[in-house]
Amino acid sequence: MRNIVVTGASRGIGLGVARKLSASGFHVIAIARTSGAELEAATAEANTNGIGQISFYEQDLSRIDMLSETAHALRKRFGLIYGIINNAGLGTSGLLCNMPETEIECLTQLNIVSPLVLTKHLLRSMLVARSGRIVNISSIVAITGYQGISAYSATKAAMLGFTRSLAREVGSLGITVNAVLPGFVDTEMTLDLDEAARRKITNRNALRRPTMIDDVASMVDYLVSDHAQGITGTAMVVDAGTTA
Amino acid sequence: MAMRDTIIEMMTNIAQQQRKPLAPLQDDLNLLSSGLDSLCIAILVAELDEEFGIDPLSSTDDHNLPVTVGDFIRLYENAMQ
Hints:
The complex is a heterodimer of chains A (244) and B (81). By secondary structure, chain A is of the alpha/beta class. Chain A is 44% helix and 17% strand. Chain A has helices at 12-23, 37-49, 67-78, 101-129, 150-170, 195-204, 213-223; strands spanning 3-7, 27-32, 53-58, 81-86, 132-137, 175-182, 235-238. Chain A has a 7-stranded parallel sheet with strand order 3-2-1-4-5-6-7, sandwiched between helices. In chain A, helix 1 (12-23) packs parallel to helix 2, helix 3 (67-78) runs parallel beside helix 4 (101-129) and helix 4 (101-129) packs parallel to helix 5. By secondary structure, chain B is mainly α. Chain B has one domain (3-80): Non-ribosomal Peptide Synthetase Peptidyl Carrier Protein, Chain A, CATH 1.10.1200.10. Helices cover 52% and strands 0% of the residues of chain B. Chain B is built from 3 helices and no strands. Chain B is globular and about 30 Å long. The A-B interface holds A 68, 123-125, 127-128, 130, 169-170, 172-173 and B 17-18, 39, 42-43, 45-47, 49-50, 58.
């Protein structure tokens, strides 16, 4: 069973991706600071179904100094790592002019530095296997504007540059690197949007419905599958037509 | 197999797989002139980590990075002791 790491897997998109990939036969290593009832339920369900598997691994990803050790521990406990879904991140909102520097630093640390460093260390397994999958969860705000999230948008745009250049660095080894750009999904991260703002976004969508977690998880599931072995360096928008 | 022989064999195999012409691997050969590019070296380091569970490069200061094939082999031989 192929091992695939999903960061920020205890809730929201990460949890949806963990569920989907385990149902597709992967052994999902779900990384989060704490597990929580939803991930525990998903783990029990996956491990009962017998198709895939979910294992929880506790790690605060803002501890950059620990990530090398984490990668070694994962390799030792689970074997070679086939892929990584860089999903964990902060969704801090607020006008830039009012945002404390410490918040900007926390955002860039967890949303940019952490996935880069973790990917660096987990790439070792993929270099050895001469195959692998890396999927970076970005956002449509990397390519379109929305007020009050300029710092967050900057971190998500950074993931696009990372995706494209890393795809070129490791492409000759059969390792693919892609980004998924979800629209506004109802998760804890978007809860600070008020009802009117959410309705406005949904009404502007071509499909007249919000982006669902399962829409995003299905795209990730495709990108890590053997069907997507010819796709790398791309930015896949999954937004129910928000940017159409 | 001795560490030296393992490293030479891995370098040869990686160069072959990555279609890089490899210079005769002597101790005084500069790594950058060996024919292996930075990706090949990254694969080599990953394979050695996989085989022996060590990564002496990650704990090496920039000014102590191996320059020649001999430096590289000695770094790993010392790390194994």
